Amino acid sequence: MLSGLDHLVITVTDISRAVDFYTRVLGLDVRYRDRERVDLMLGDMALRLHWTATDITPRAATPTPGSQDLCLRSRLPLDEVQRHLEALSVEVELGPVIRQGATGELDSLYLRDPDGNLLEISRPRR
Q1: Which residue, of 3, 26, 67, 120, has the fewest CB within 10 Å?
Q2: Where is the VOC domain (predicted)?
Q3: Strands laid side by side in the 118-124 sheet
Q4: In whole angstroms, what is the distance from residue 68 CA to residue 11 CA?
Q5: Nearest to 117 by CA among 13, 28, 34, 20
Q6: Contacts of 35 (CB under 8 A, 6+ apart)
Q7: Which secondary-structure segment (H or E) carries 20?
């Protein structure tokens, strides 16, 4: 019945700060929808940022900044990702470590976005 994921909403306290992080640190392309919603393109899907004070409906029953735990696939080797993060003074919370992904084992790094969401940057193990 289902075929994939179109977008995933991340509730943030400051749209500009979140856009800066996801574009500058993670290299995502931005598409502005309006002042309360922004899409960050990730392949053929979007991470949609919603401002905490939005009146947009429907929405989650308890939209909470910092409640997401996302695993994102990297096109680059993790050592390059780690060097990029270090150059930007972005703290790696954990990693590289071996984890289990949807299609097999991953090498992963963990970091947090400005709202405290946990982001796992991963590559399939070879």
Answers
A1: 3
A2: 4-124
A3: 69-73, 118-124, 105-112, 94-100
A4: 9
A5: 13
A6: 15, 51
A7: helix 15-20
pLDDT at 37: 82
Q: Please report which confidence band the pLDDT of residue 112 belongs to, taking 50, 70 and 90 as the band edges.
A: very high
pTM score of the predicted model: 0.93
Separation CA 126–CA 105 (nearest Å): 9
Give the separation between CA 84 and CA 80, rounded to whole angstroms: 6
Q: For residues 98 and 86, give the distance between their C-alpha atoms in angstroms, rounded to a whole number.
A: 20
pLDDT at 36 over 80: no
> Per DSSP, what are the bridge partners of residue 8?
47
Answer yes or no: are the C-beta atoms of 73 and 123 closer than 8 Å. Answer: yes
Task: Identify residue 93 by its one-letter amino acid code.
Answer: E
For the annotated catalytic residues, the residue numbers are 120
Q: Terminal CA-to-CA distance of the chain, rounded, Å? A: 32
